[in-house]
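$ ./design --mode recover --in tokens.txt
reading tokens...
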């Protein structure tokens, strides 16, 4: 391995160490707390650049470094936007609606027992206002695609459950679109009973499995 690679790799690893051990302002939220999403994105990009530098040919060294830096920058911007959007949604949505930030997407989960009557795909009045708030958030953060995914528990016929999950996902998507989100940003899917998040052997587990998820996926561009 030549000296230039070792020097560059050492520098990048040093940047990783500094990023991991310090809390600069750019890694803090409005409350002064460390923003793990942003820090993780930047550290990940630096690690990627380091690995690329160590394993690449000399003529590809610059590309590896630039790619890692660009990835870190894009990841940091995406993480920052997701953190902001998550915080705003938590302030405006009902407590019955859960929000999970995975670092690369937001998952807003609507419990079916609150959203729909039994065996119905008509959205209840109880969550219409919340769905319009979600739509407003999506309009204000336009650089993302949206998946609306319906789920059921395992009671009843699997084929019927799948159809019901599709109808419910479409109903939620229709309200989001009515709130101003362009149709081409939304993809609807019904999963039926295929993707439980809890056991279907208990009433509590079945209740958790009956849900519609709104998945917000930032665009890298």
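writing sequence...
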């Amino acid at each position: 391995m030549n000296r230039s690679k070792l020097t560059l790799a050492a520098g990048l690893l040093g940047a990783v160490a500094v990023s991991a051990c310090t809390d600069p302002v750019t890694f803090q939220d409005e409350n002064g707390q460390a923003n793990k999403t942003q820090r993780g994105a930047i550290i990940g990009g630096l690690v990627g650049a380091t690995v690329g530098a160590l394993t690449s040919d000399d003529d590809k060294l610059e590309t590896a470094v630039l790619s890692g830096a660009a990835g870190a920058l894009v990841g940091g911007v995406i993480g920052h936007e997701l953190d902001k959007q998550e915080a705003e949604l938590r302030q405006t949505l009902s407590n019955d609606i859960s929000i999970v930030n995975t670092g690369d997407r937001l998952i807003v989960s609507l419990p079916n027992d609150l959203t729909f009557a039994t065996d119905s795909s008509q959205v209840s009045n109880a969550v219409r206002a919340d769905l319009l708030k979600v739509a407003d958030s999506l309009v204000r953060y336009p650089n993302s695609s949206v998946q609306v995914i319906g789920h059921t528990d395992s009671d009843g016929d699997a084929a019927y459950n799948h159809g019901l999950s599709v109808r419910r996902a479409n109903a939620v998507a229709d309200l989001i679109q009515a709130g101003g989100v362009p149709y081409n940003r939304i993809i609807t899917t019904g999963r039926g009973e295929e993707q439980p998040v809890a056991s279907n052997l208990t009433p509590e587990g079945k209740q958790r499995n009956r849900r519609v998820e709104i998945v917000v996926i930032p665009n890298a561009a």
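exit 0
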